[in-house]
Write a structure and sequence with these properties.
6 helices, 0% strand, mainly alpha, single chain
């Protein structure tokens, strides 16, 4: 796995989206320079999801369209293609049928658990 991709994933965990986007762009360029278009396309899929969660619809659409183009052309990366199809459909207002969306491709960002929620959960009696 590309070092820049690993850094980006850690920044995503830390909710540092700007740094994660920068690292993902660097990772894509490095993979393209080394001739590994499949790995670059996988990074594009992650970047597209990150843009979507950051409410940057146009940039997200651009990345997912590149993922689709590569997948259709080569017949590879079917998982990334499914994710791209779901997001592009959501951008167009066509939500997928229930049960057909992959579990790891959220259409909307998950709500952040605040301090009140966490303290309520910690105070519950677990038997």
């Amino acid at each position: 796995m590309n070092f820049e991709l690993q850094k980006a994933l850690h920044y995503i965990d830390l909710q540092e989206t700007e740094k994660a986007i920068s690292c993902l762009k660097t990772a894509i360029q490095q993979e393209l320079d080394s001739g590994n278009e499949a790995a670059a396309t996988e990074c594009r899929c992650v970047l597209g999801e990150l843009y979507a969660l950051d409410q940057q619809k146009d940039e997200s659409r651009e990345q997912f369209e590149k993922v689709m183009e590569y997948s259709v052309r080569t017949g590879e990366l079917m998982k990334q293609r499914e994710i791209a199809v779901m997001y592009l459909a959501a951008f167009d207002g066509k939500l997928p049928a229930p049960g057909r969306r992959p579990g790891d491709a959220p259409l909307v960002a998950k709500p952040v658990q605040n301090k009140g929620f966490i303290s309520k959960q910690m105070n519950k009696r677990h038997r």
